[in-house]
Amino acid sequence: MIHTDGREDRYSRQVRFAPFGAEGQERLAQSSVLVVGAGALGTGIAETLVRCGVGKIILADRDYVEWSNLQRQQLYTEVDAIERMPKAAAAQRKLQQINSEVVIEAYVIDVRAEELEGLVSGVDLIMDGTDNFDTRLIINDMAQKHGIPWIYGACVGSYGITYTILPGETPCLHCLLGTVPLGGDTCDTAGILPQAVQLVTANATAEALKLLGKRKEQLRNKLLTFDVWRNEYHEIGVKAAKKKNCPSCGSHPIYPYLMAANTERGDVLCGRDTVQIRPARPQKLNLQETADRLSRLGSGSVDSNAYLISFIEGPYRLVIFADGRALIHGTKDIAAARSFYHRYFG
Question: What stretches in the chain show pLDDT beneath 50?
Fold first, then answer.
């Protein structure tokens, strides 16, 4: 397309960066990226790639915009929070205003294995903007199954982490983690500094440009962690962590997290305004420590006994048991229940 209003200069500063150049820019324009999650990381990643000139962005998110999001989720406004706009739709609207030449698809869905299978066709890269390891391990298995690179990223408090996973070459997330963790800190329990988000975004999207621009030799090839408050920065070599017998990326993969039995399950309880969330594997929560952690938030009421914890915030009451199973009272919407659950149990 020929423009006479200066738009031809849009990517000129990027093209003038010799290691990327016009060839890298052309490849980027032909690329398609799936961003799973449109929270702090997802919006930062999507905006950066759209501004850089990626050809197509696919956004998928189950949640809507709330006031607490505005501190760090840079695509959203007060109007989005007032209207409780679905994040994917609000992000699409803003991104299209930023760059009308990029194809932007938005899906307001809870991404599980079935949904993800329908999103990955033709995708060159998957970017992690999720808030829980259950979804990340589903992404990991789907990426391995279809041979799609993906970039893991997470942040909480002042801490951030990112790692680029190449099927058939690097260790996968299952190699590094093995099982789905439960009960760790989340942004709702430990807070989050926007600077931590920005650093993960910067490092993850730099890796994305290397991959999409066919500059693979420039990839970091290490797991990056940092803490912006403690002034810590570490690169960790994890090549030796790759397991030949890994069920997700080994010589005989079975992709366990694409099987319903190995993923978190949500069910509406018959005759009740309640959703049950059951983790993929039974956990051993310390109920007293968990109750103390929720009490310190000061955002809801907490009661507990030797068998369970009851936590009430807004319209929901969450009851969690020592094995990690939870009941979310006040809704029949599985996606809404799962979103509430993962605020406190990432």
Answer: 180-183
Q: What six digits make up the tokens of 275?
A: 């959703």
Residue 323: how many CB atoms within 10 A of its CB? 14
| Inter-residue contact 227 to 158 (CB < 8 Å) | yes
Segments in the chain forming alpha helices (H): 12-15, 21-29, 40-52, 78-83, 87-98, 113-117, 133-146, 173-177, 187-190, 194-212, 287-297, 334-344
CA 103 to chain centre: 21
User: In terms of Cα–Cα distance, which of 247, 221, 265, 244 is closest to 113?
Assistant: 265
For the stretch 267-293, pLDDT in tens is 777 667 888 888 877 678 899 998 998
Strand order, beta sheet including 32-36: 103-108, 56-61, 32-36, 125-128, 150-156, 159-165, 223-227, 232-236
Measured CA to CA in angstroms, residue 195 lies from 159, 160, 203 at distances of 10, 10, 12
Half-sphere exposure of 79 (CA within 13 A, CB side): 5
pTM for the full model?
0.82
Instruction: Go through the domains of the chain in sequence order and give each one's CATH number.
Output: 7-258 (3.40.50.720), 264-344 (3.30.310)
Rounded to 5 degrees, φ, ψ at 107 are -130, 120
Name the helix (H) or strand (E) containing 273. none
Query: Beta-carbon neighbour count of residue 202 at 10 Å?
Result: 15
- End-to-end Cα spacing for the chain: 45
Sequence-separated (6 or more) residues with CB below 8 Å from residue 298: none
